[in-house]
Amino acid sequence: MVKDNHSHSADSVLNLRLRVWRQRRGQPGAFEEHALQGVSTSASFLEMMDMLNEKLVRDGKEPFAFDHDCREGICGMCSMTINGMPHGPLPGVTTCQLHMRNFRDGETITVEPWRARAFPVLRDLMVDRSGFDKVIQSGGFISIRAGSAPEANATPIAKDVSDAAMDAAECIGCGACVASCKNGSAMLFVGAKVTHLNLLPQGQPERDRRVLAMVRTMDDVGFGNCTNQGECQAHCPKGITLDVISHLNRDYLGARVKAFFSSTGKARRGGD
Amino acid sequence: MNLDSKIPTGPLSAKWDNHKAKLRLVNPANRRKYHIIVVGSGLAGAAAASSLGEQGYDVSCFCYQDSPRRAHSIAAQGGINAAKNYQNDGDSVRRLFQDTIKGGDYRAREANVYRLAQLSTAIIDQCVAQGVPFAREYGGLLANRSFGGAQVSRTFYARGQTGQQLLLGAYSSLSRQIGAGTVKMYPRHEMLDLVLVGGHAKGIVTRNLVTGEVRTWSADCVVLCTGGYGNVFYLSTNAQGCNVSATYRSYRRGALFANPCYTQIHPTCIPVHGDDQSKLTLMSESLRNDGRVWVPKTMADCGKDPAQVAEADRDYFLERKYPSYGNLAPRDIASRAAKEACDEGRGVGPEVGGRRLGVYLDFSASIQRLGESVVRERYGNLFDMYENITGENAYRRPMRIYPAVHYTMGGLWVDYNLQSNIPGLFVGGEANFSDHGANRLGASALMQGLADGYFVLPYTVADYLAGVGLSGRPSVDGVEYRDVLAQVNDRVNRLLKNQGKQTARSYHKQLGKIIWDECGMARTREGLTKAISDIRGLREDFWKNVAVPGTGADVTPELERAGRVADFLEFGELMCRDALVREESCGGHFRTEYQVDGEAKRDDARFAHVAAWQWAGETAEPIRHEEALVYEEAQLSTRSYK
Fold it and tell me: Are residues B97 and B174 in the same domain?
């Protein structure tokens, strides 16, 4: 174990009470309580969960299933609602980057899955986020066949436009926006992708059909409506702001109006 | 066995064009009749699956994550190289080729590396067209930065998240094909075995990680883009799920595994904090531009606050040993120097397992010279991440860093077509061995994954399919499929029924310690010999005493882990064996017996070849084959950084 070192940030151990959600697919779930001793404050939240699971396995019990992969805050796979907050209490970090020094000795920590109609629980803390993939499949791309791309510098893009597209493109698709929203809305996620692609010159040809198709799929797979609460922005680990929702609404409205006035009776509709 | 690399004849610069002109084609109307399996959805896998889907093939793509967007390519920070010469600073395809061959310490195949350099420019075009928001200058054109191992600025980047943006670009193309119905995506599926029919790769066995269903799939060919094996070390910068199973299981079915001992240890990672650590985090190499690396001169000072260690009592060991390169010595050299300092007992930071494994990366001189705001502007996000993980403020006290496993250059042996020695089994990206030799240069992994996926595999896979014709796909009811399925089920059941008490993770940790100690930054004959016997003992113990709770008929994370650890326990031995036989030092492979004044000593007369290992059964030792590396253009020379 780690020895305390007076010259470095004090590394101490915590004894915790954990209330963790246990659920099988298609069945009702419930909290299970466990005591966990000797958690280093240097450990990440997921390492604390590993410790709990190792203990359960050694005792012949099933561990808690949870999603995780890169553990450096970029893949978007980890989830968990910690003490009622998606990704826990620290702003701007994913669960995997949340460290135990942010908790107190003796604290009770409640760990739940993302809770949203469009994210059904697969097991314990794991949910099905394939709705996000379906939204992207319906239009979250620029149609470019490998081999047919023009020279990269043929189209200059103003730095501020490119930077704004990058701000939106930083979304990791974790779903905290949906989990934090009382409506289970995916507007921040969809808005981020629409903003990223619709800002760029390469994205213009499909601008209208993209936004129409993505919004329709968003509704179809069960995400709720936006009522401008702003919880998504507050819980986004990547700092995506509500601006992308404004952008989405503006592009959507523009596309609907254009579709209405250009309607000639022939099928020329984007996706709505 | 004859290892035919199928390198086309003719001058280096004309090989790929000549070769493409000879590759056979499949009529567009027939393409949908061919079923192609792509395993993995990282840069190589997503690019290959989407490109083959665009051409009209019937593609199935599998990944273990919940979405193809999560593949570990996403974590790459720095950038992607391309010989665009936008900076007008003398770059060219030939120069990128030369840098990459030299960076690999002359252990890569010349023709493959040249093709990679040629394709690099088309990758940037493709990514920009997809909407990848690369960094730009105020004039609206693409920006570049410089990177290790090159004297030109050829690296394209998207803030510190280049891998993320490139992967999301490939994922968007893949998603488009999924929406169009040409690619069927199977997330949360893990490949557990390969099926051969008549000596050709014709299918796989997967386990559905949600329902537990184990089933077979038949195809006309199989493309593996399943990444590297860095997690054999337990602690690495890889994602938790990264594993060797797909490539190792294919090895057991006859595919050759090339150069497994070539691994890259990155010098600037956040040190291990304790026994429960699961992951190491990279701090970008760029920090060494403004940070000075040091440890105390004496052990007595190692426990002190660094501010209390007088300037005269500090050993800036990189500046001392490599005065001309100083703190910017290459990755393998810098890593070994840090290890030596800590092995001498002069490491810093908290004691973990009785040792201090860390060195200081000190920014105080730069902060004094440039001011804190300039340092914050350059590296603010990295300092934030460091503070998040360690709880320490690197503006006030030096960062602590230590080397960690980052990338694996070895992989399944492939020919120029990226086809393994098993016909119909193609391997792309980090999973193959072909382009980086014994050491990979920064910003080259992304380049290789995308070159393989967008621009090589779509041509060479078509050539194979045209050759075998439309009658090539067997029925999934065939005896070959049933046999492999039965073997996979036996193994799964054996794990589930084991009455042990130890966790799979505990074995993984023990294995990682053996590999790190004996097959890490410095390797010796004695250490490797001992490691092989220790790993065998550990493997026996694993199969007796591992505990795998759950029924397997549902989400069973311990079953997934145990299966991967079981494969690492076999693969680790192969890796040590390869390191033992390679009696030279080159790139990331450093044998302490073979050095000159502390630097790697290559033995071109005996070892200018690829070592490709063939499985010979449970009890027999694997057979080592050699593919000679013939250099037509590159001049073999010794790397020096003093």
Answer: yes
Q: How far apart are alpha carbons A130 and B203 in whole angstroms?
A: 26
Q: Is A67 on the interface with B (CB under 8 A)?
A: yes
Residue B221 forms part of a structural domain: yes
Beta strand pairing call for B314-315 and B399-408 = unpaired
User: What is the extent of the structural domain holding B595?
Assistant: 489-628
Cα separation, B523 vs B537, in Å, equals 20
In 3D space, the residue among B31, B33, B72, B67 whose CA is nearest the CA of residue B174 turns out to be B67
A166/B159 Cβ within 8 A: yes
Q: How confident is the model at residue B441 (pLDDT cuts 50, 70, 90)?
A: confident
Whether B191 and B148 map to the same domain: the answer is yes
* Average pLDDT taken over every residue of chain B: 95
DSSP letter assigned to residue A266: S
Mutate one of B136, B174, B183, B235 to test the A interface: name it (highest A CB count within 10 A).
B136
> Distance between CA B282 and CA A104 in Å, rounded?
28
Q: How many CB pairs under 8 A join A and B?
A: 257
Domain count, chain B: 3
Q: What is the pLDDT of residue B183?
A: 98
* Model confidence pLDDT, tens digit, residues B117-168: 999 999 999 999 999 999 999 999 999 988 777 788 999 999 889 999 999 9
Interface of A with B in 210-269 (CB under 8 A): none
- Which amino acid is residue B573, in one-letter code? E
What does the alpha-carbon distance between residue A54 and residue B502 come to, in Å, rounded to a whole number? 9
Cβ within 8 Å of residue B321, ≥6 positions away: B329, B337, B598, B642
Does B433 lie in the same domain as B346? no
Q: Are A16 and A35 in contact (CB under 8 A)?
A: yes
B157 and chain A in contact, CB less than 8 A: no
Give yes or no for a contact between B502 and B547, defined as CB atoms under 8 angstroms apart.
yes
Q: Do A133 and B185 touch (CB under 8 A)?
A: yes
In 3D space, the residue among B162, B166, B224 whose CA is nearest the CA of residue B190 turns out to be B224
Residue B539 included in any domain: yes
Which ipTM was obtained for this model?
A: 0.95
Q: β-strand B221-224 against B425-427: which pairing, if any?
A: parallel
If asked whether residues B158 and B94 sit together in one domain, one would say yes
B419: CATH: 3.50.50.60
Nearest one of B556, B454, B546, B461 to B507, comparing CA atoms: B546
> Could you tell me if A56 lies within 8 Å of chain B, comparing CB atoms?
yes
Asked if B40 and B68 sit in the same domain, the reply is yes
Same domain, B496 and B421: no
User: Can B331 be counted among the known catalytic residues?
Assistant: yes
Query: Which pLDDT value is given to residue B176?
Result: 98
Asked if residues A214 and A140 have their Cβ atoms less than 8 Å apart, the reply is: yes
Same domain? B415 vs B430: yes
What is the distance in angstroms between the Cα of A231 and the nearest Cα belonging to chain B?
A: 23
Question: Token pair 């073979």 is at which residue?
Answer: B594
Instruction: Tell which B residues from 58 to 87 touch A, by Cβ distance under 8 Å.
Output: 65-72, 74-75, 84, 86
The residue ranking higher by pLDDT, B275 or B3, is B3
Q: All domains of chain A, ordered by start, with CATH?
A: 13-123 (3.10.20.30), 129-261 (1.10.1060.10)
Among the candidates B364, B389, B406, a domain finishes at B406
Considering chain A, what is the average pLDDT of its residues? 93
DSSP category for residue B454: I
